Amino acid sequence: MKKNNKTFEKLFYNNKFVVAFSLFLAIVFWATVKINYSDNMNKTISDVKISLDSTFATENDFVAFVDSDKLMVDVEVSGKSYVINSKSFSKDNITVEASSGYIDSAGYKVINLSAKSSEPDVSVVAINPSTITVFYDRKTTQTFNVEAKLNNKLDTLVEDGYSVGQPVASLSTVDVSGPASVVEKIKKVYFEATLDENNLPLEATREVTAQVSFDLENSKGSQFLVCDSLSQEANTATITIPVSKVKTVPTTVKFINEPKIFESNPPRVSIYPSEVEISYNPLDETDYDSFNVGTIDFKELTNGLNTFQFKPDDKSVVNVVDPSITEFTVRVNLHSQSKTTIDATGAKTVFLNQADGYNYSVNLDTSGLDEVRIIGPKSQIDEITPDMLQIEINVSSLDLEKTGSQQVEISNISIQSDFGEGCWISGRYYAFVKVSKKQ
Hints:
This protein is mainly beta. The protein has helices spanning 2-12, 15-37, 55-58, 81-84, 180-183, 260-263, 378-381, and strands spanning 40-53, 63-65, 72-80, 94-99, 107-112, 114-117, 122-128, 131-137, 139-150, 162-164, 168-169, 173-179, 189-193, 206-209, 211-214, 226-227, 238-241, 243-256, 269-272, 275-280, 291-297, 305-310, 319-320, 328-333, 338-342, 348-352, 358-362, 372-376, 389-394, 406-415, 424-426, 430-437.
């Protein structure tokens, strides 16, 4: 025991130990004084969330419309420094409340804020801001038409040789929810976009992301409007800007069922207008050198002047630029050809697309084929005989269960001879066909 006492006494004669021990005692003494006798300090706690009580408003079906960032305030508190500065004290220890009170009309309302601390040694000194402004109204949803709104001038988007169509919004209508007094004043919803000039000129159709805007007399309360239709992942606000390539080309017409002699040397035609400006997809690999206004079947041609009217095809990949062109007139001059009639009731008959297990028969004597019109050079039509003709009938549309004769249009009457290579059959003819099951 005496040995331990001597060891302890020796420590106090050690200068280093004395200094360390003195420092330890000073810290203990300072902490004791600080905890028990230190002064209060103030501190500002940022981004404390407001608890908004709209119970009395909802009783009248009114809803609070407010920006989420407006529900954050800074709170100044006062208390012992060791409490305020401790890690255990945070904004979660502070409650900021706002109560709407009774609401019976739409509009903005300024609400005073109150705050309290869950820590008894900390008190609230100030709230910044001390009030919030909330818009109260009944909530409603309505459907509106959508219009694409491109802020660029269309004629600045492309160079020569291209044209721009009217921009199209990705949705034709949208559902908009929000304050009833604001929704009821909406005239139209816009999908609005502006193209960066660095991305111009356009050389193909472009889809761009758009912002939603509203056609309103004033913007009061518009920040609370929500497009419910765009809340779905599949629906986004975009604008499609149609871009087409344009060029002026001659007009042409296509012939079908033409005699061999006309395959490489079509008959002389005149088309009005003789040329037209067309537009088509710039990404189309075809470089259009002409515009086909329509198709003429040689069955519809006779000797003389044949006139046809064609309207532009709305479903064609090639479109006519000029909207005033609503019709094309085509004249086929065949005055140099001759015409005769021939009895084709003895011609060979071929049935096309027969069903397995069925027989087909036709009586040409009752089919009105005793006067079939043949058009062609005089030197050829006079030499054509019935045995040179072949009558082709497509029977795929006939009712297999029907026992009587069924009328069907004759698909084609061809001349099976090189001698009549400049001739064709004019007109449409019909036959009565019977179908019977094979025994």
